[in-house]
Amino acid sequence: MLSPALLSLLCALIICLPLAVIVTITSPSTTVHDGPRTNPVAAAKTHQRLLSFKPPEDDKSLFRVASRVSSRTPPDSPKKIAFLFLTISPLPLAPLWELYFNQTPENLFNVYVHADPKQPYETPFSGVFSHRVIHSKPTLRFTPSLISAARRLLAHALLHDRSNYMFVLLSPSCIPIHSFNFTYQTLIGSEKSFIEILENEMGSYERWAARGPEAMMPEVRLDDFRIGSQFWSLTRKHARLIVGDKVIWEKFNQPCVMWDTCYPEENYFPTLVHMRDPRGVVPATLTHVDWNGSTGGHPRMYVASEVGPDLIMKLRMDKPRYGDDGTNDSDWSFRRRRDPFLFARKFDSDSIEQLMSIASEVILSD
């Protein structure tokens, strides 16, 4: 027979055991502190895998993954500008861009290059452009391939760095016409994208019907169709919108039957953004271009003899053309705006010497 003291102790244990089990199962601290700790070697290997992650090479998978990234930048790090260079050649104006970026903290920008793999590159990409070429595919004028290239750049930038806030598309003939600091303050300080969205432009119907009279219907009516510059500055929100789009892209991803009115890259982006979020943009491009005297659908090319302080000042002083922001009173809405041009094109490759001679005192000085 058990002694009274031992019997009392046994009863207490029987009564308290279920409570102990309940506390063990439900207490968060038990799992966190008493469970197995993370293996530091395994953690290091996981981190290494993340650093070496390569985005999918097929567009369908790439765009699907990129469209699912966070729409917000991390609150504990500065927002960045993603500079997206779309080219079919080495970058002849790279020395100017090198000077532009070398005066800038690296935590404020990223550079990405889409280089047509079928084109010759006698001079490899170096300096700030080194190892910045994404998986690229051939591009051809009058086809949707230029849209695809820009979408790839956006997708890679979205996946590479969550701090990328504004995404700027540039050509090899583009130059900066302000300092990086001025450009950064202008773009990061905006909650809206800058993309030219023009309504009722001459030739709109011909462009809309370039794939056939009914090819764009019913998803893209003529009333929805817009024209604008190929070069834009987009917020993270609109970058995700573009890489995630399937419906409007399917309408533009068709071969044109009238190639002389087929400029998909000048129509897809303004049309999509206008249809999905017209109030989220300033309907103007911040990349200056001169269409006076254009030939073959190409704008004026500035040659070396034209490059000087007066030209840069003139480009800075010009006012962007504001288009349709979805309010039906765009002229009134933007009458008082004067957003600064931040970039300009087209500059001949032979003008680099002249550009460099005025870079520090004029181009990069505000």
TrEMBL record:
It is found in: Membrane. Residues 1-20 form the signal peptide. GO terms for molecular function: glycosyltransferase activity. GO terms for cellular component: membrane. InterPro entries: BC10-like, Glyco_trans_14. It comes from the Eukaryota. Keywords: Glycoprotein, Glycosyltransferase, Membrane, Signal, Transferase. It holds the Pfam family Branch. It is a single-pass type II membrane protein. Its main location: membrane. This is Core-2/I-branching beta-1,6-N-acetylglucosaminyltransferase family protein. It comes from Hibiscus trionum (Flower of an hour). The lineage of its organism: Eukaryota, Viridiplantae, Streptophyta, Embryophyta, Tracheophyta.
